[in-house]
Design brief:
It contains 5 helices and no strands. It is an all-alpha fold and 80 residues long. It has one domain: Ribosomal protein S18 (30s Ribosomal Protein S18, Irregular).
Length: 80
Amino acid sequence: MVKDKEAKTLRKKVCKLCLEKVDTIDYKDDKRLVRFITDRGKIVPRRVSGACARHQSQISQAIKRARILAILPFTSEYYR
């Protein structure tokens, strides 16, 4: 019983972008933005991606700009 409680301890997610010391996220950096999009084309939420609030808002804004400029797709081609 005690081992089950030890196994359930959660570690806090650390923002990978803060560790890399990224100040701003550019909409032209599609390789970085693809990590934050699901296979269906949805933006990954903060609790899943582990990004901090500041970087998550920059990520979503950059993804939206990249979609408008056709750098990233709005939806995946497989689910149309």
